[in-house]
Amino acid sequence: MTLHLPRPFVHEQPRQNIVLDLSVLGQGIEDALRAVMEQPQLRLIGFRCTAGSGAIDDAIGLMEQVRRDYGVILTELVLQGVDGVDLREVVDEALDEACARNRYPRPSVVFTGTPAEPGLPALTKS
């Protein structure tokens, strides 16, 4: 006797990791979030923002909102800073405070320099 099991994932395509750039989206973040979350082939993994403490607090607050609204925990925070400036201590403190205030798990942090060209895409493949 041969048992044939269905293969439910045969035609499933791999999901593309996406990082949304908060500095580019501004007030359109809600629409961008909805658009990404409605696409089954996309996986939102985090946000990109400037390395200032206010921007970090906003990003972590938005990550908590995504967790509440969509049940997804974002794990990446890409911080765009000034080249040659050591922001690790400032960012570390701001990140600790924002995560504690929002009761959000600390995401992985990636530091990048200033963009080489203005107008980088708001959606970034990871």
Structural account:
With 126 residues, the protein is of the alpha/beta class. The protein has a single domain (16-116), classed as TIM Barrel (Alpha-Beta Barrel). The protein has 4 helices and 5 strands. A 5-stranded mixed beta sheet has the order 4-3-2-1-5. It starts with 15 loop residues before the first strand and ends with a strand. The model has no long low-confidence stretch (mean pLDDT 81).
Short note summarizing the structure:
The protein is built from four helices and five strands, in the order E-H-H-E-H-E-H-E-E.
Keywords:
126 residues, alpha/beta, TIM Barrel, five-stranded mixed sheet, 4 helices, 22% strand, globular
Main sheet record: 5 strands, mixed
- Count of DSSP helices? 4
The count of domains is 1
Task: Summarize the amount of helix as a percent range.
Answer: 25-40%
> What's the overall average pLDDT, rounded?
81
**CATH class annotation:** Alpha Beta
Strand order of the largest sheet: 4-3-2-1-5
Topology:
Elements: E1 16-21, H1 22-25, H2 29-37, E2 42-50, H3 53-70, E3 76-80, H4 88-102, E4 108-112, E5 123-125
Parallel strand pairs: 1-2, 2-3, 3-4
Antiparallel strand pairs: 1-5
Helix pairs in contact: 3-4
